[in-house]
Automatic annotation (TrEMBL):
This is Succinate semialdehyde dehydrogenase. Belongs to the aldehyde dehydrogenase family. Its EC number is 1.2.1.16. The keyword Oxidoreductase applies. One of its GO terms (molecular function) is succinate-semialdehyde dehydrogenase (NAD+) activity. Residues 20-476 form the Aldehyde dehydrogenase domain. The active site is at E256. InterPro entries: Ald_DH/histidinol_DH, Ald_DH_C, Ald_DH_CS_CYS, Ald_DH_CS_GLU, Ald_DH_N, Aldehyde_DH_dom, Aldehyde_DH_Superfamily, Succ_semiAld_DH. The keyword Oxidoreductase applies. Keywords: Oxidoreductase, Plasmid. One of its GO terms (biological process) is gamma-aminobutyric acid catabolic process. PROSITE patterns: ALDEHYDE_DEHYDR_CYS, ALDEHYDE_DEHYDR_GLU. It comes from the Bacteria.
Amino acid sequence: MTALKDKDLLRQQALIGGNWVDAASGAVVQVTDPATGQVMGTIPDLSAAETRAAIDAADAAFASWKKRSHAERAALLERWFDLMNQHAEDLALILTLEQGKPLSEARGEIAYGASFVKWFAEEARRIDGTVIPAPTNDRRILTLKEPVGVSAIITPWNFPNAMITRKVGPALAAGCTVVIKPSEFTPYSALALGVLAERAGIPAGVVNIVTGMPAEIGAELTANPTVRKVSFTGSTRVGSLLMAQSAPTVKRLSLELGGNAPFIVFDDADLDAAVEGAIASKFRNGGQTCVCSNRILVQAGVYDAFAEKLGAKVAAMKVGPGTQAGNDIGPMINRAALDKIARHVADAVAKGATVAARAEIPEGQYAAPVVLTGATTEMELASEETFGPVAPLFRFETEDEAVAIANGTPFGLAAYFYTENIRRAWRVAEALEFGMVGLNTGAVSTTVSPFGGVKSSGLGREGARAGIEEYLEVKAFHMGGL
Ligand code: NAD
């Protein structure tokens, strides 16, 4: 980390009530650079008692934070946004070192992450209520919007910066205070955001960051009645566990969970555009994104041509350390991720798929980008997220068949399709059971559009105007006897 311009951004302590702390037990968790396998440093492995202290700090800060004017909260968020931009290079480097993605992608994530803080600083000024005509003349009815309260923010390793700001931006704008629990694989991006929040002048206790192994911390965050909201991004397995753990205290929940995105190429598609879209949606972050195309469905008439064009691009991909310019794909996050990818490819090949293209990879924690032809719905990769650079091509004959395959999983996060036919565009967009649908584009993530899924992909929406509502309660205020 010698290359950091501001070394103070790399913190190896948790942030509770404005104090940077170690675990009382002295326990730590090591953080590893996935490109080299070297230990970057440690983080405190906090207990339930320390998590409780963070919740209490957030609760103490809530009393005054919610009373600040929207303009004051917005001004502090704007300052935080400016600092993220000023330190973008350092934030990107920390992100690449702990997560692995190419630096160019990390820079993109920092800009994307910061954009949520800016957006919700602006939205803070637009929190309003309504006046409802009352049933009798002597009454008035108003709705007031109030912050939900202390919010637990639990985030994954694949977007260690943006998944935090997409939650904390609206939470703070709404007047909530937060306890963030970042992934134990990528805590340093979160802690650097904590340093910048402090420098921005966001008061102590408004942003708390607890680190360590998740089960004990998560159990406290969900059981503690002071926490009124849990916002989680991660796997469906953990999301439903947190939902169950939150049930006894009936917390508000936002769950951004796993996906299994279909990417449908119809016979009438612009094939070169479809190949570009497939590359973008499949291989960004090495295929480790929740909106990644997991199943590429190609109509019979263009199947071979599409496979050839995609295969040529995939075989030419450069794989290596994210810090080395020119690499398209970095290391996978850990050995378990590599094992899952290998299992999916082996299962597909055993069931009749062919490796039609494969890129070279160096020694280390790398997965080869591959195109698999002859994929079928019986294969494991059809029903589970691979979370790696594997592009399986499924052949279909009719539009109805494509839609049925696309909808045929428990997930409903993102779906993509390519067609030049306007009638088909409407039909298919309406038939797809997903929270986000991309027509002739492989990108659906932007600050201004609601992000979220249906079915087992989750509850609630982030970003856009909808994002701040997740942190607001509606209070109906009835005035009588007028
Ligand atoms: P994960 O569910 O393993 O972990 C996510 C977070 O939950 C981490 O901070 C982890 O430490 C924590 N966690 C794990 N067990 C916990 C417990 N018992 N109590 C409390 N917290 C616990 O997911 P991951 O492997 O970090 O991320 C990959 C998954 O996230 C994929 O399924 C991906 O699709 C999903 N994801 C979804 C979105 C979205 O917006 N829908 C975005 C990014 C990633």
